[in-house]
Amino acid sequence: MPQPATYDATSRINHWAIAIATIVVLCIGLYLGNFDGDRELRGNLRDFHKATGVLILVFGAWRVLWRLFQGFPAAVATLPSWQMTAAKIMHWVLLAAVIVMPLSGLLKTLFAGYPVSIYGIFSIPAPEKVEWVRDLAGQVHGIGGWILLVALLLHVGGAMKHHFIARDATLVRMLTGRSTRS
Ligand code: HEM
Ligand code: HEM
Hints:
Elements: H1 9-34, H2 39-70, H3 81-110, E1 116-118, E2 122-124, H4 131-166, H5 170-176
Antiparallel strand pairs: 1-2
């Protein structure tokens, strides 16, 4: 497969749709995991968190496979090699999180004996409780959430630095596909 010249429309839709959904689900997760609040609100947020997380898993699997199949286009700008390496590592951490976070959340919930309702339309039934799977998946989900938060802050910070300080076309290319700034 030759290296793509830019991010095509599919890659850009994949990136932004999964990015927005992941940021929303991550913020709700961090709220649920770290703050108290009204029981009913927490319940509704938890249901939305789970259902949207499962959607991310389904579309995320397609998104990650598409990226693996296509490969990454070359960077728009020439950067010091440590920054290139850091950006690459962040991309792989983010791609992994798109699968690992919803999968661990799903396993932790199902193996705790709770079915997962997808917006009340249908439900994924719970198997027998298995404590070690629930606990392991819970650990991965908890630690993974913080790793995702740090990777995301570095990723967005990097994108802003490219756009506003280096003033190159890195963000423009992910928004429009064009590799130059006019
Ligand atoms: C406001 C938030 C975000 C901004 C401004 C942003 C910006 C960007 C930009 C400019 C690139 C292109 C980098 C390059 O050409 O080297 C990129 C790539 C990438 N971003 Fe984001 N991003 C955001 C959120 C996210 C989130 C939440 C995720 C993960 C869930 C994510 C995952 C990725 C990945 C994996 C790539 C590599 C290319 C691809 O597979 O799409 N981004 N992002
Ligand atoms: C991109 C997808 C997801 C992200 C980024 C995410 C993130 C998080 C984070 C950061 C927390 C707080 C850490 C903790 O207390 O363990 C959390 C809690 C939780 N997540 Fe997720 N999650 C995702 C998907 C899912 C899915 C698909 C499910 C289940 C089907 C799920 C179920 C839960 C549950 C039950 C909690 C605990 C809520 C509470 O304390 O009341 N998550 N999630």
